[in-house]
Design a protein that fits this description.
Four copies of one chain form a homotetramer. By secondary structure, the first copy, chain A, is mostly helical. Chain A is built from nine helices and no strands. The longest helix of chain A has 27 residues. Chain A starts with a helix and ends in a 10-residue tail after the last helix. The structure holds a DNA duplex (21 and 21 nucleotides).
DNA sequence: TATGAATGAGACTTCATTCAT
DNA sequence: AATGAATGAAGTCTCATTCAT
């Protein structure tokens, strides 16, 4: 018999999947209840509102992200490797864990004013994290001096765009992105952020 | 007395602004009617449904984009300059023409299944265009060989991410992005896509 | 074709009748809509919520009451006659204008916290009015000195109790109350509030 | 370990308090369960429905009332003293025993059609009792001839109105009513019901 | 061309009640 | 005896759309 926790997680997973695929407003509680094999009423034992479900999903996603980046830091990888790892990991997760890779898909959902703050905060928190990472890399001269704010949002945009494309389609391009994006982006990022070679011999 | 066309455009502009800001589902026809100083009934003289308004907006946006890129081609700029122009122009439009810069904001709106196809097509059409452009650049040896599909989506993601951030907020970061993103991204793209220097003296 | 105002009044009257009879919480919008021969949705053109309907009813009732007492004052009746008139008129209205005699039936309805304030205020306003009237009577020596606060609430209670009994039943007692309460209460009030006769010749 | 009976009484007391304060429909079983420190399920061991709880409360209140009036009769007080005692005692109980003074507050609660009969019966039973008492007083020439039905409902209304005002508020007026109502009403009732002095000398 | 009252389907949510444990 | 997860009916409310004027 499912424990409280299991049912809650079930609802969250199911909702994450449907929200990601169809959007928040296009997903009725009927659909969530049906997929979770529960009555609509039951959902309200576990979440106090539909908004609350989305918030729980986002909190879980954010926690996962934080664990992941904390782990990267602990391993004391060079900054460029950390960024690479973040990009590659997010892209690889899409499709493998559809219900748990929603952070980039949900963050931009249409939202009530109440939710907006929370959703935006998740995205902003990731941006702040990347910014700090970039600045550290610049200080340590591991990457070239660049505008960390601009580059942070650019990197998030890349992840989001490619993740979304993979998530929502299943065609030839999906395959290309899934298989080739990690290598291409690794190379792109390395060129993008590489320290400029010293001019050997100024004119 | 406004002509049919003017009223139609008015509705479109008003709707583009509100859809962008609040989302498609969070925007009722009442709100559009109020902002356009029209009755709800009148809107149905110009558009056959709410979905239809969104479609019209997207078609207009796509046309604008096509004109813009056609112009770039006509001027026979080098590929890297064309890409640069596309990125910079989109970012500069945000905030200046809120009601006409919606393409990147609307493309990711939650949508009914019916609309989904159309919205995605716009995004895909832009991706296809960038892909072709990149391949041309590679052929002409103006940019380094890269996976044009991956890079195309990456560039769209960058534009989208930064545009969105500028559009929805008005804080210090907004300022940074607005003023510094064009230069930073120009530089980033140039490094990213630059032809690898010939190894001076192969081993 | 009914004007906006007529429909609004229709809803109000219908709702007043049902609320009075069955209570606020036991009355669904379905019932109001059905009795008003309208769709549920339509009701929301005229009232922004179910609470709002109740508020509108109370405001109308209070206005009626105020007109009535203002008229009494204008006619410069002695205080005891005014009180008598108030009591008798309220009792006579019950049954004649079921949809417009709701003030004493609605004031004590179960209510949301939001409504509570408004509902209570109506009742309190009537109490305050009676208090002032009693004090005036005492000053003018038209009625005996008494605690105007206590007596004001007592009079309201009498009206409420008898009105309610008439409203909700239709039996022998209803008839007795309807026909005999005015005379009995007139006499009762006169004894209750009469100036004590001077002891002619104290033993 | 609480005995069945103690738990049952606990539920009843808690429910009486909340029903009185917030109303029947505004009180969920969750609230009762929480206040009684019980699970919702448990409540259904002691009462077969929410309605049943209210009925039990009313039956208890009615029993208390009957005991009280039986005691008055046993003491063979004059009728006017009995009425006085009833009025004063009810008013004094409010605030002292919030959970057991509910009869006048509950009697007018909104109720399902099923409950209506029962609730009304309690009120009617009190009215019948007062009527009989008044008629006895008239027969015994202890009080003036009056319409016992009308006066019975009037007295109930007075008690109800003042009790309610005390129960739901806590302001200056609450204090006035609590402290001065017993004396004022005692005096009022005595004047109201006093035997008319014999005309000394006809004509 | 323009209006806005009217509609009805469907949204989210609450809650008394049941029942397996 | 006690629990609380699960249910499903009913509640209030929103909104795109229609249509008589």
């Amino acid at each position: 018999m499912p424990l409280r926790t299991e049912t809650r997680e079930k609802i969250q997973s199911v909702a994450a999947e449907i929200f990601s695929k169809r959007g928040f407003h296009n997903t009725g509680l009927r659909a969530i209840a049906a997929d979770a094999r529960l009555s609509i009423g039951s959902i309200y034992h576990y979440f106090k509102s539909k908004d609350d479900i989305l918030l729980a999903i986002l909190r879980r996603e954010l926690a996962t992200w934080k664990e992941f980046v904390a782990d990267l830091e602990r391993r004391e990888l060079p900054v460029s490797k950390q960024i690479e790892a973040i990009v590659v990991q997010q892209i690889n997760r899409i499709g493998k864990e559809r219900d748990r890779s929603a952070i980039f898909l949900l963050g931009r959902l249409e939202h009530s004013a109440t939710l907006k703050t929370n959703l935006v905060e998740v995205y902003e928190e990731m941006a702040r994290y990347l910014e700090r990472l970039l600045r550290t890399g610049i200080e340590r001269k591991e990457i070239r001096p660049c505008n960390s704010t601009v580059v942070a949002y650019a990197i998030l945009g890349i992840i989001e765009s490619i993740s979304t494309r993979i998530f929502f389609h299943n065609d030839k391009i999906t395959g290309i992105l899934r298989h080739e994006a990690p290598a291409e982006l690794t190379q792109s990022l390395s060129k993008w952020l590489a320290i400029d070679p010293l001019p050997v011999n100024g004119r």
